[in-house]
Write a structure and sequence with these properties.
globular, two-stranded antiparallel ribbon, Aldolase_TIM, 31% helix, single chain, 4Fe-4S, alpha/beta, 2 domains, rSAM_sf, 6 helices, carbon-nitrogen lyase activity, TIM Barrel
């Protein structure tokens, strides 16, 4: 059994699959230290128990071929049954993307694509180094105050810049738009990729999108 916060059909609003129709499975629970700016704090709770078969059935019923498993921190439930969902969805032919902070090591045998969003908290990056190596892409929420930290992280891990995505900081549409030119210019300068947070541009502060 897995602990679920919510599931819904939408568009992926972030990273390399921006704009792609997706069925979201948001698992409950996170890993400290918790991010004070988190826009899904409701997922920090214990959620509701749901079986792997019910989650797979819901994904099939959505009619979409792309499943995003997010949180909270979804990989904290790997041993509790996420490993099984990973295999079931793969066998059913779904493309699967995991959104993780990297605080929990990414399993070596994971089948879905891993998108890692490292978090800088309390003066350091809270990320497992093996998770960085196993992620397909890394995405960072960027602002004037974090660009130097991101550059140092990329250099420290010798990352291919084609794997690095920057998104402008913004809990609201106006804040995101304000930070876009800064992030745009930095991506041009450094060779990173850029994505918006499309759901915020479209719906501002509305939840469940």
């Amino acid at each position: 059994m897995l602990r679920l916060h919510e599931m819904f059909a939408s568009l992926q609003g972030e990273g390399p699959h921006t704009g792609r129709p997706a069925f979201f499975i948001r698992l409950a629970g996170c890993v400290p230290p918790l991010c004070p700016w988190c826009d899904t704090k409701g997922a920090w709770d214990e959620g509701t128990e749901v079986s792997v078969s019910d989650l797979a059935a819901a994904a099939k019923e959505s009619g979409l071929g792309f499943v995003v498993i997010t949180g909270g921190e979804p990989l904290r439930q790997w041993e509790e049954g996420l490993w099984e969902l990973d295999r079931v969805l793969s066998k059913l032919g779904f493309a699967v993307q995991y959104e993780t902070s990297g605080k929990v090591p990414v399993p070596e045998d994971i089948r879905g694509e891993v998108i890692l969003s490292p978090k800088y908290l309390e003066g350091s990056w809270h990320v497992d180094r093996t998770s960085v190596a196993r992620a397909r892409h890394l995405k960072f929420v960027a602002s004037q105050g974090t660009l130097g930290l991101i550059d140092a992280f990329v250099a420290d891990h010798a990352l291919d810049k084609d794997r690095v995505w920057l998104m402008p900081l913004g809990m609201t549409r106006d804040e995101q738009v304000e930070n876009m030119p800064l992030v745009w210019d930095h991506c041009v300068k450094m060779g990173y990729r850029m994505a918006s947070r499309l759901h915020i541009l479209a719906f501002d502060t509305k939840k469940g999108i």
